[in-house]
Amino acid sequence: ESPTQRVGAEPLKSFGQVTHAIPMLSLDNAFSEAELSEFDRRVRERLQMGEQHITYSAEPKLDGLAVSLLYRNGNLEQAATRGDGMTGEEITQNVRTIQAVPLRLRGNGVPGLLEVRGEVFMPKAGFERFNDTARKRGEKTFVNPRNAAAGSLRQLDPRITAQRPLAMYCYGTGQVEGTTLPDHHSAILDQLREWGLPVSPERRSVTGVEGCLEYYQKIQSRRDNLPYEIDGVVYKVDDIEQQRRLGFVSRAPRWALAHKFAAQEELTRVVDIEVQVGRTGALTPVARLEPVFVGGVTVTNATLHNEDEVRRKDVRIGDTVVVRRAGDVIPEVVNVVTERRPADAREFLMHTRCPVCGSEVVRVEGEAVARCSGGLFCSAQRKQSIKHFASRRAMDVEGLGDKLVDQLVDEGLIDSVADLYRLTAEQLAALERMGEKSARNLVDAIETSKATTLSRFLYALGIREVGEATAAALAADLGSLDAVKRADEERLQQVPDVGPVVAAHIVRFFQQPHNIEVVEALIAHGIHWPAIEHSAAQDKPLAGQTFVLTGTLHRMTRDGAKALLQSLGAKVAGSVSKKTSYVVVGDDPGSKLAKAESLGVEVLDEAAFIRLLDEYGMTP
Ligand code: 9MJ
After folding, report:
1. Does the chain have fewer CB atoms within 10 Å around its N or its C terminus?
2. Nearest partner of 175 among 119, 118, 236, 113, judged by Cα
3. Exactly one of 13, 61, 387, 578 is catalytic; which is it?
């Protein structure tokens, strides 16, 4: 177990995959006392506990990366990331380098097989030290400890991970063979500690909502003094038998809740309001701010969405504003502190000419968005469309980041997405800050991206209003690129999730000679995907499942939800029966909810439904 023995292996070429025998669940979130009370009420109701208080195990909610450790006969055999909950990446070599993780369990009664789950994180002090050193050496720094932990575990070379100050706390178990664990969560954590595994010293047993709130407030007041980042606390029903009776919905247990801290807010000054040009020419006013530390990161920009929003909030250059940042959400200007408005504060005026290409700016009546009319003549639109094309959920060209795209367009090396496939390693290596090895890797990544799916390809084209869900629905329904190109507006509107506006955008896209040229060039360069056979429907993740939708959804329309489900292979039916797999319930559900409950059919609320879609990469 000596530290020098921890790094044994050579760098990997890529990470292997691990299927979790028991899925790694995520947590339901609550942002208020009311949501916590509601959670507690549901738990008591399901357990038929009446007014009796529930005992919860309360823990800080660490902001790192969830991992699973597998110990066989007490030896660390495998470590994996959570991934999508079903399948993660094998990161054994990297986890072995974390000092807090024992390579061997100690003590009595170590079971033949023990899977432990927990959060790997980078303590604040180590994070600061790491960034200081990186800054001095002119290397890349991390925005926050969470990214630092994730980035460190994603290294193919364990020698790099070994230099990162990572730690871990365990908070649960997966598969266990050869022993019976204690019958309470808190006692299981005590047992893990006795076997030498790190568990949070802040964990406490609490009673009822009142106990939860007391714990929440106590931890919140100590948040800044804790040596690691947390973003809330977690409550878990302590009694394992009760947990078993509660079960789980989609991907989260019914017996646990993450109670998140409120978004953080700070005051700062608007130095300027600039306009950014998006992929579709949309002009977005962005407030340039005096740097301010909020919610764990230094914020220098906040979106103002559009001209009307700037008017509504009456944000002026020179104003002092409240900036809010919650979790991973982009920072926003909440409101102006008008009392602090200086006499020379300037109002924002939307440009009449595109700040990048000088084309006329148009704002269609009834729309909030002003757009540059330059199309692909505008280098900002070209850059954004290439960034979108290369992005992870589109063609997934690894290593082609935003700065590099800017550089490639500015140097005149590429004009369209098709040009990417003509780039040579020599051309790339000649760029500033690009070594030969990176150049080669990028050419390889571009080559790798050629094998894709029709749905990703359609999404990557960046057709207006065609997001991932619509692209998936188009691919599933029409089956081939040719069929999409040939479809008229009427045919397109038969595709679930496609209305008249989207249909018109698609038809217009494929009418433009320039777009046809680019698409043909891409295919000529060898971009390909497996043909969609309608008989392959059984292979889809939700094949054989029947859903019924009822009530109003907020994050999507009923048709949108239907399209997403169908593209995952599920059937969507109009009425509930014993054969129904799930009923998705929005606001004001009708009799279908009662029917589902009487038949014992699984009910998903919108949040649970979105999580389920999310697991399959289908974010509405
Ligand atoms: C964190 N992130 O600290 C869980 N977690 O339990 C704690 N996460 C969890 N528990 C079940 N303390 C799924 C995730």
Report:
1. N
2. 113
3. 61
What's the rounded Cα separation, in Å, for the pair 30 and 119? 20
Ligand 1 pocket test, candidate residues 26, 57, 62, 173, most atoms within 8 A of CB: 62
Name the pTM for this structure.
Answer: 0.56
Please check the confidence at residue 591 and state whether its pLDDT lies above 90: no
pLDDT band at 563 (very low <50, low <70, confident <90, very high): confident
496 Cα–ligand 1 center, Å? 37
What one-character DSSP code corresponds to residue 317?
B
What is the DSSP track for 176-239? EESS---SBHHHHHHHHHHTT--B-TT-EEEEHHHHHHHHHHHHHHHGGGSSS-EEEEEEEESB
Residues facing 241 on adjacent strands: none
Kindly give the number of the ligand 1 atom that is closest to the alpha carbon of 169.
3
Of the candidates 305, 277, 273, 275, the one whose C-alpha atom is nearest the C-alpha of residue 289 is 273
Burial-class residue 530 by CB neighbours within 10 Å (0-12, 13-18, 19+). exposed
User: Rounded CA gap, 252 and 235, in Å?
Assistant: 13
> Are 201 and 184 a contacting pair, CB within 8 Å?
no
Q: What burial class does residue 227 get, using C-beta atoms within 10 Å of its C-beta: 0-12 exposed, 13-18 middle, 19+ buried?
A: exposed
Q: Which residues contact 471 (CB under 8 A, 6 or more apart)?
A: 455, 456, 458, 459
Best residue for ligand 1 mutational test, from 20, 25, 26, 61 (most atoms within 8 Å of Cβ): 61
| Count of Cβ atoms closer than 10 Å to residue 208 Cβ | 17
**Which residues lie across from 276 on neighbouring strands?**
284
pLDDT in tens, 128-145: 999 889 888 888 888 788
Task: Output the ligand 1 site: residues, CB below 6 A.
Answer: 25, 27, 59, 61-62, 119, 171-172, 234, 256
Q: Does residue 557 carry a pLDDT above 90?
A: no
Distance CA 420, CA 388 (A): 13
Residue 286 Cα, ligand 1 centroid: separation in angstroms?
Answer: 36
**How many Å lie between the centroid of ligand 1 and the Cα of residue 494?**
43
Contacts of 375 (CB under 8 A, 6+ apart): 281, 381
Task: Report the distance separating Cα 36 and Cα 59, nearest Å.
Answer: 15
The per-residue b/e assignment along 327-365, b for 16 or more CB within 10 angstroms, e otherwise, is eeeebbbeebeeeeeeeebeebebbeebebbebebeeee
User: Tokens representing 268?
Assistant: 């700062």
Beta bridge partners of 55: 207
pLDDT tens readout for residues 158-176: 999 999 999 999 999 999 9
CB 286 within 8 Å of CB 302: yes
Residue 75 φ then ψ, to 5°: -100, 135
Which residue do the tokens 């509930």 mark?
576
Are 69 and 115 in contact, with CB atoms under 8 Å apart? yes
Distance (Å) from CA 118 to ligand 1 centroid: 7
pLDDT-above-70 percentage for the chain: 96
Active site residue 313: no
Angle (nearest 5°) at CA 92 between 90 and 96: 160
Give, using CA atoms, the residue closest to atom 14 of ligand 1. Answer: 26
Q: How far is the CA of 200 from the centre of ligand 1 (A)?
A: 11
